Amino acid sequence: MKRHVGLGITLIVCAAAEAAEPAAPAAATPPAKPVLAKPLELRIGEVRKYMPPDEYRAVIGAPDADKNTVVVEAQRELLPVKYEKPIPVGPLMPVFWALMNPANSWRILLPDLNRPPDGPPDVVPPPVFRWGP
Hints:
The chain is mostly helical and 133 residues long. The chain has helices at residues 2-20, 53-61, 93-100.
């Protein structure tokens, strides 16, 4: 309660101080000149400074020297994520889980991709039962 009263008094004092200051005349300040920014220097300069001569000759003599292709190869380590952990299964367990994890409660509306399918897959349909020939 004390914080709210203190905050209110502070805002009132600031508003009164701002209202009491005279407005500066528009003619007193000269218009600001636009600052011309220096264009970016994107040229690399002499390439031979950055590469040894044998590598430079190998790049120039390569058959695909005219291509503008950059290939970056890397493997990224996948970190375990909370939403990859399984949700409890059952009629009421997902509801209790959602109450305990409100930020991830949306997951109970989606199928669990990490859960194995129930039973073996039906690759071959079961035979049709008949009483006679």
